[in-house]
TrEMBL record, chain A:
This is Quinol:cytochrome c oxidoreductase quinone-binding subunit 2. Keywords: Membrane, Transmembrane, Transmembrane helix. Coiled coil: none annotated. The chain crosses the membrane at residues 32-56, 68-90, 110-132, 144-161, 173-192, 204-224, 244-263, 275-296, 302-323. PANTHER family: PTHR43044, QUINOL:CYTOCHROME C OXIDOREDUCTASE QUINONE-BINDING SUBUNIT 2 (PTHR43044:SF1).
From TrEMBL, chain B:
This is DUF3341 domain-containing protein. Keywords: Membrane, Transmembrane, Transmembrane helix. The keyword Transmembrane helix applies. The keyword Transmembrane applies. The lineage of its organism: Bacteria, Pseudomonadati, Pseudomonadota, Gammaproteobacteria, Cellvibrionales.
Length: 341, 180
């Protein structure tokens, strides 16, 4: 097949899938949203890492750069998978229902949460990210600020407004840390062969820092809402502590944070390729569950089917992403390739 | 102690460059001397390993002690809060259960981190034998050159004559006796 048509084919496939999921509604739309976010976190995180490296320099960024450039390049696929869901907003976002049926609290938010403004914002976020991802590292300082602002409001829109009563300030920061941690884990898992030992240790240390940041954000959101125990906010956690979601919250925390943290505590494990790969794989698995845990509970109280659907869709996305990929194209065998950003 | 009685501490030799010092360190260690220290104006790659330093500090390495103390302190902090809130003075706050463990975590974390940092700093000082108010190398008149262009090797004790010979052979600019 012509290598030029392959990316277009991927975009078309994902866009059609997204449209089908949006129109089908039911469990498929939220599961598709979660799967797109699981994969979409990687280019978002990679973009931030590339911009940070542009500002600070350092060998870690040169040795991991190929992986993050590869991830940044799948940003258009993320857009293609997510934006068709706009066609099925009614099945995803409760605030699209007629205003008289909504609780007063949500009705007060309709100046922000309304369809035209929502669509406009989504297009603006993706325009910014696609523009940044085309040449990662352009205007890094302003880019990082815009990246964080856009990500915060993107999370308010696409994740938090799934349960429109809920509000949390730290939500965007939490997701910023999560996407960055996932992109670090990806680079460690798939870019390990090409890395010098010292640079790999630096990447592992940065990764540990980001993971600790995530734990801080996630816990501060929890402790504030748990202490206040207000009816509008606590419902969010109650939905997530019923049936299978309780287990998912513990398991995703253990896989995403606790296990990699324990591995990275030991200086010897941090220098060992096998332990790092193990921790990174655990983190990516935990990331998948974590996104599922953020998106799916309001749609599926028992949780089992939506989790299975999520696993299926995440693998499907992976297949679409890597079908026809030559292995050498995304796993650099040589070190020292300098990102052009 | 024989050395202390005679006022003799050891020898100090000055070298002109880091390579000469490094070879000297290897050759002195080969003859079985272990109590030697190198003093250089800048970090010389490989010198620490040559003098017998290793990253993992044996059973009492800093990281291990910091972790141990941190975990114990965190456990005590959590235990104290749990005991106070559940057994010693149970008060229901905000309708929450007595064992409201999420509220205990910030204190647990702070106490754990504080003690682990203190343990790391104190272990580091003790293992470096700091603070150290007096050292015989400062009896050497030219020692200030160690922070300009002098590469010094000081050896404690040992067979003075043989050692001096060896240091001269390694290309020392001079070899002098260090007194207490």
């Amino acid at each position: 097949m012509n290598p030029r048509t392959l990316p277009l084919l991927r975009i078309a496939l994902l866009a059609l899938g997204g449209l089908a999921a949006a129109l089908a509604g039911g469990l498929l739309a939220p599961a598709w949203l979660a799967a797109a976010l699981v994969w979409g976190s990687l280019p978002l995180g990679a973009l931030a890492i590339l911009m940070v490296h542009r500002l600070t320099g350092g060998r870690w960024g040169e040795t991991g750069g190929t992986q993050w450039l590869f991830l940044a390049a799948i940003m258009p696929l993320f857009a293609a998978a997510l934006l068709p869901l706009l066609a099925g907003m009614q099945s995803l976002f409760p605030w699209t229902q007629p205003a008289e049926t909504l609780p007063q609290l949500v009705r007060n938010k309709l100046a922000y949460l309304n369809m035209p403004f929502f669509i406009l914002r989504s297009l603006a976020f993706f325009a910014l990210w696609l523009w940044l991802a085309r040449a990662p590292g352009r205007m890094p300082a302003r880019g990082l600020l815009l990246w964080l602002l856009a990500l915060t409001f993107f999370c308010f829109d696409w994740l938090m407004s799934l349960e429109p009563e809920f509000y949390s300030d730290v939500y965007g920061l939490m997701l910023a840390a999560e996407t960055t941690a996932a992109a670090f884990a990806w680079a460690l898992l798939f870019g390990m062969q090409g890395m010098e030992t010292q640079a790999r240790r630096d990447i592992a240390n940065l990764w540990l820092g980001v993971l600790l940041g995530w734990a801080f954000f996630a816990f501060s959101q929890y402790i504030v809402i748990w202490s206040a125990n207000l009816p509008d906010e606590i419902g969010w956690y109650i939905h997530r502590s019923r049936s299978i979601w309780r287990a998912v919250s513990v398991i995703s925390f253990a896989l995403f944070f606790a296990l990699p943290f324990a591995v990275l505590l030991s200086g010897r494990a941090k220098g060992s390729a096998r332990w790092l790969a193990f921790a990174a794989a655990s983190c990516l698995l935990g990331h998948t569950l974590q996104i599922g845990w953020l998106v799916l509970p309001p749609f599926d109280h028992s949780g089992l089917w939506s989790l299975l659907l999520l696993a299926l869709l995440v693998s499907l996305f992976g297949a679409v992403l890597f079908a026809g990929h030559r292995r050498s194209a995304f796993v650099p065998g040589t070190s020292g390739e300098v990102p052009h950003g | 102690m024989k050395g202390a009685a005679s006022g003799h501490y050891g020898l100090i030799a000055r070298f002109d460059d880091s390579e000469a010092l490094l070879t000297a360190v290897y050759r002195v260690r080969e003859t079985g001397h272990r109590r030697l220290e190198a003093h250089t104006p800048f970090p010389v790659p490989g010198l620490a390993e040559a003098t017998g330093f290793s990253e993992d500090g044996g059973r009492f390495q800093v990281a291990r002690i910091a972790l141990l103390v941190g975990v114990i302190a965190a456990a005590i902090a959590f235990g104290l809060q749990w005991y106070t809130a559940v057994i010693d003075y149970p008060i229901v706050v905000g309708g929450k259960p007595l064992n409201s463990w999420p509220a205990f975590l910030p204190i647990t974390f702070k106490v754990g981190i504080f003690n682990s940092v203190m343990a790391a700093a104190i272990t580091m000082l003790v293992k470096n034998r700091l603070p150290h108010f007096y050292h015989p190398v400062f009896n050497e008149d030219d020692f200030a050159a160690a922070s300009a262009d002098g590469f010094f090797l000081s050896v404690r004790g040992g067979d003075t004559e043989k050692l001096a010979m060896l240091l001269w052979n390694c290309g020392a600019r001079y070899v002098r006796e260090l007194t207490l």
